[in-house]
Structures are given as structure tokens and as C-alpha cells.
């Protein structure tokens, strides 16, 4: 299977998963979620959906639990919208790169403040 096809499917899953999470999930546990990336296997049998979660640790845990529960629904909805012989198995992974960036930014600001006070 061509790499271009895999990339198109990954982008499609990213867009559709984002729409479904944002507009269709009715679970009150699910807070602010951003789908950052999708990695599908070359044979398109499975795909990892990377998500960034916002909020307190409690809110993130609640959102994560809601996403895990909605996994089957999201897969079936994507299956209805995608033109493939089968729908990839989906799994969610936390993308903590945004949290990491925020921490780095906070450290840089702290260093600047300390240098200014010396």
C-alpha cells in the first residue's frame, strides 16, 4: 500500500475524529481535547490517535476516561465515513508535547525574571 494513501487516511481519521469528539460526543466527562496526530500502520489495520488534553489533572483524567469509553463509537462513525474495506482499530495516546512546551516556556520566563532581579 502506498505511503501517500496511508497519509491521506491518517489525515482523514484526524479530521473526522476531531469533528466527532468536538460535536457528537455527549459524555459530560469529556473536556477540551485536541487531536494532534494520527499514526496508522502500513496495512491500515490499526491507527493511534494522539490527543492533547487541557485542564487540571482531574479534568484530564475524566476526559481520558470518557475518550476510552467512546472509542468504539468513534471507530464506528469513522467506519461509516471512510471508503475502506475495513475500519482500522483505533487507540488513543496522550500527546504531552504541548504540556512540555508550556513547562519550557515557564522555565524560560522564570530564568529571565531571575536574571533581571540580579
Automatic annotation (TrEMBL):
It is found in: Cytoplasm. One of its GO terms (molecular function) is ribosomal small subunit binding. Keywords: Cytoplasm, Ribosome biogenesis. InterPro entries: KH_dom-like_a/b, RbfA, RbfA_dom_sf, Ribosome-bd_factorA_CS. GO terms for cellular component: cytosol. One of its GO terms (biological process) is maturation of SSU-rRNA. It holds the Pfam family RBFA. SUPFAM superfamilies: Ribosome-binding factor A, RbfA. Its main location: cytoplasm. The keyword rRNA processing does not apply. The keyword Lipoprotein does not apply. Belongs to the RbfA family. Monomer. Binds 30S ribosomal subunits, but not 50S ribosomal subunits or 70S ribosomes. One of several proteins that assist in the late maturation steps of the functional core of the 30S ribosomal subunit. Associates with free 30S ribosomal subunits (but not with 30S subunits that are part of 70S ribosomes or polysomes). Required for efficient processing of 16S rRNA. May interact with the 5'-terminal helix region of 16S rRNA. This is Ribosome-binding factor A. It comes from Dendrosporobacter quercicolus.
Amino acid at each position: 500500500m502506498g505511503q501517500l494513501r496511508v497519509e491521506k487516511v491518517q489525515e482523514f481519521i484526524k479530521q473526522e475524529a476531531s469533528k466527532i469528539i468536538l460535536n457528537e460526543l455527549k459524555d459530560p466527562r469529556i473536556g477540551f481535547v485536541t487531536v494532534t496526530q494520527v499514526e496508522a500502520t502500513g496495512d491500515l489495520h490499526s491507527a493511534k490517535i494522539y490527543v492533547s488534553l487541557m485542564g487540571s489533572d482531574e479534568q484530564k483524567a475524566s476526559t481520558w476516561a470518557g475518550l476510552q469509553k467512546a472509542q468504539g463509537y468513534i471507530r464506528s462513525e469513522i467506519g461509516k465515513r471512510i471508503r475502506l474495506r475495513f475500519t482500522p482499530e483505533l487507540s488513543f495516546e496522550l500527546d504531552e508535547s504541548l504540556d512540555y512546551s508550556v513547562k519550557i516556556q515557564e522555565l524560560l520566563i522564570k530564568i529571565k525574571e531571575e536574571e533581571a532581579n540580579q
